[in-house]
Amino acid sequence: MQVPVRMAAVILSLAVLAAGCATGEQITGPGARTGDASGMSCERVESFTGTLRVGISAPPRPTGMPADGTFAPGETPPAVVYPVLDSVDIVGTDEDRVMFTFSGDGSIGWSARFVAVAFRQGEDASAPVSGRCVLQVDFSGADTGEVWSGGAPVYLSPSSTSEVVEVFGYPSVNHLAQTFIGTRTGTPVVTVDSAPAAGTLEVAVATASR
């Protein structure tokens, strides 16, 4: 279903990641912090989609593009420039939000869904994400920025009191950027906020009312 600019989604009690602990850090191994979240017992199966428009949603015609959009035989069209995911961070004094920040111009399709296994695009092996629930966040039509230049994922590890176990943000493959969030609980409420003017999308998590 299409998600509005602010949306309270399902029960996802994440309370998200400490900003000061390994924010934006690149790692070459899992470095998992399972805490008391060992074992998959997620009770959620929902998925959500939306569009984030950053900069100029319809970018200007690339330099060198013919006015009529056609090319003579042998001519090479200019490369398409996609919006760039610059960072994945933990924000908020309550450590309850994961923020994705983009630059550039264009429209980015995003989706968030609970998955049983954190499979990456084009990979046979799963991502080493610990948690009772795993929330997979995909951005299509986006490349990743310099922080991923080494090819390793960005790894965010919260404090032991956080309801999020860990976050893995992977470099884009074929203009698809993927992030996996492992949660300490199997029952959640997620709120998704987009701020096109700032080029951000924020996933906030709160504990469900009992």
Short descriptors:
about 210 residues, mainly beta, 6-stranded mixed beta sheet, about 0% helix, elongated, disordered N terminus, Lipoprotein
List the topology elements.
Layout (H helix, E strand, L loop, with lengths): L5 E6 L13 E2 L20 E8 L29 E8 L5 E7 L2 E10 L17 E8 L2 E2 L9 E3 L7 E6 L6 E8 L5 E7 L4 E6 L5
Parallel strand pairs: 4-8
Antiparallel strand pairs: 1-12, 2-9, 3-6, 4-5, 5-13, 6-7, 7-11, 9-10, 10-11, 12-13
Descriptive report:
This is Lipoprotein. The chain has 210 residues and is mainly β. The chain has one domain. 0% of the residues lie in helices and 39% in strands. It has no helices and 13 strands. The chain has strands spanning 6-11, 25-26, 47-54, 84-91, 97-103, 106-115, 133-140, 143-144, 154-156, 164-169, 176-183, 189-195, 200-205. It is elongated, with a radius of gyration of 18 Å. It starts with 5 loop residues before the first strand and ends in a 5-residue tail after the last strand.
Low-confidence stretches: 2-39
What sort of overall outline do the alpha carbons produce when their principal axes are compared? elongated
* Overall radius of gyration: 18 Å
Question: Residue share in helices?
Answer: under 10%
Mean pLDDT: 77
The tally of helices reads 0
Largest sheet: 7 strands, antiparallel
Multimerization state:
single chain
Strand content: 35-45%
User: How many runs of DSSP E, i.e. beta strands?
Assistant: 13
H/E element order = EEEEEEEEEEEEE
Strand order across the biggest sheet? 2-9-10-11-7-6-3
